[in-house]
Amino acid sequence: MVKINKHIEIVRCGNPRLSSMGLKSCNMIGKTLSRHYARVGTTTVNNEHDIALLVAKKPDLVFLGFKNMPTLSPYPTNTEESWIADHLDSHGINYTGSTKLAMMLDHNKDAAKQVICEAGLQTAPYFTARSGEYSNAGELPLPLPLFIKPPKEGGGIGIGDDSVVRNFAAYKRKVANIERDFGTPALAEQYLTGREFSVAILETPRSKELIAMPIELITEQNSRGDRILGQKVKSADTEHVIAVADKDIKDAIVTLAIDAFKILGARDYGRIDIRLDEQGIPHFLEANLIPGVAQHDFTSYFTSACWINQAMDYETMLLHIVELGLSRAVDIGEDLVERDMVPVTVSPSLETAFEPV
Ligand SMILES: Nc1ncnc2c1ncn2[C@@H]1O[C@H](COP(=O)(O)OP(=O)(O)O)[C@@H](O)[C@H]1O
Ligand SMILES: [Mg+2]
Asked: What is the CATH T-level fold of the domain 105-121+193-314, as seen in this structure?
C-alpha cells in the first residue's frame, strides 16, 4: 500500500496525572498510523526542553495526548502552566484537538461551568469551597447534600465515595483533603443523583458537522447508595458502558453535548460528561477535550462510543482524527490570509472566565 507522505508525531506527557495518553496507547496509535503515513514517531514530553526537540522535528501534525504541564520556574510557588498548544501555535505546527482557550476550560471545571451557565445551558449550581469560610451547614451557599471535587484534575483523581457530603463534618473534611492534596480550593456542586452519560463528539472533516455518540456509564452502587465514577472505579474498570436506548434522553444529552462543545470553543473531537438530576434533567459535568483513545476494550469511553454508536473501529477513528488535523493544514496552506483575519469564534463569557474570583 502506498503511504501518505506526511510526518505525524504522537505526543504524550511523561507525568501520568497530566497525560490522557499512556505509553501503551501512544505506541499503539503509532503502530496503527504507520500503516498509512510515511513517517510516524512518538514523543514523551517531560519538560520544555523536550518540547523544543519536538518543535525542531517540524512534523506535519502532532497527535496530541496532553494539554499542559507546570512551567519550570526558579520560584517554587510559581504555579504557571505551560500549554503545549501555545508552543505548537507559535511555531506554526498543526495539532489534533482544541486550541489553548478551550483546553483551559477543560482543565478548569469551574471556568467551564461559568461559560456553560452564562450560555443558558444546564450545569449544577456550584461555589468555590475553602476551609474555614463557613461555620455550619446553614451558612453554605447551597444546601446539602453536595458533591465536592478538585477543580482541575481528571481521571477521577480526588473523587471518591467521600465526595458526596451529607453533613457539615463530611463537607469540612473533604474540602480540607482537597486543599491538602491539590493545593487548590474545592469545587462544591449540587449533588446530581440521576443516571450518568458521556457524549463523544467528532467533527466531520471540512464540513464542520458534529457527530454525537452518547453512552451510558453504569457504576455499582456503594454502601450509601451512591454511584460515583471516582478514581478507584475508573482504575478497576468495574463500570459498564452501554448504548443509550431511550430516544428522549438521547436527544436531550446529544443537544446539551453539542451546545457545550460549541460554546466552549472546542475543535476536532472531545467528550462531554453529563449527569441527570432527580427530575431527569441533563446537566453538564465537564469537558474532556483530549479524551483517551486507547484501543477498543471499553476502558476508553471515546473509543467505545465510536464503536457502540457508529461501528467505527479503532483504526478508522484514529484516521478520522488525523484527517481532521491534516485537512486543517491544507486549509491553512490555501487560505492563509483569510483564515488569519477571521477570529476564532469565542463566546464573550470566555473573556471573563479566567478572571480571579
Ligand atoms: N455534581 C455531581 N453530582 C453527582 N456526581 C458527580 C458530580 N460531579 C461529578 N460526579 C461524579 O464524579 C465523576 C467524576 O467527575 P468529573 O467531574 O467528570 O471528573 P473527572 O475529570 O475526574 O472525570 C463523574 O463521572 C460522576 O460520577
Ligand atoms: Mg469525567
From this structure: D-amino Acid Aminotransferase; Chain A, domain 1 (3.30.470)
The strand pair at 186-190 and 126-129 is best described as antiparallel
The three cell numbers of residue 253 are 444529552
Q: Does ligand 1 come within 6 angstroms of the Cβ of 194?
A: no
Q: How far apart are alpha carbons 239 and 304 in whole angstroms?
A: 13
User: Cβ(228) to ligand 1 under 6 A?
Assistant: yes
Q: What is the pLDDT of residue 105?
A: 96
Q: Over the chain, what is the mean pLDDT?
A: 90
In three-state secondary structure terms, 69 is strand
Looking at the chain, the domain(s) classified CATH 3.30.1490 span: 126-190
Look at residue 235 in the predicted model and tell me its pLDDT: 84
Segment 42-65 shows an average pLDDT of 94
Question: What fold is seen in the domain 126-190?
Answer: Dna Ligase; domain 1 (3.30.1490)
Q: What are 274-321's pLDDT values in tens digits?
A: 999 999 999 999 999 999 999 866 679 999 999 999 999 999 999 999
Assess whether pLDDT exceeds 80 at residue 347. Answer: no
pLDDT of residue 120: 98
Q: Is the pLDDT of residue 76 over 80?
A: no
CB 102 within 8 A of CB 260: no
Q: Which of 117, 285, 288 to mutate to test the pocket of ligand 1 (most atoms within 8 A of CB)?
A: 285
What is the three-class DSSP state of 333? helix
Tell whether pTM > 0.70.
yes
The CATH 3.40.50 portion of the chain extends over 4-96
Ligand number nearest CA of 231 is: 1
The CATH classification of domain 4-96, taken from the options 1.10.10, 3.40.50, 3.40.630, 1.10.1030 = 3.40.50
- Whose alpha carbon is nearest atom 4 of ligand 1? 192
Ligand 1 midpoint to CA 252 (Å): 19
The answer to whether the beta carbons of residues 350 and 287 sit under 8 Å apart is: no
Contacts of 353 (CB under 8 A, 6+ apart): 105, 108, 111, 112, 114, 115
What is the CA(60)–ligand 2 centre distance, in A?
31
Using 50, 70 and 90 to split pLDDT, how confident is the model at 81?
confident
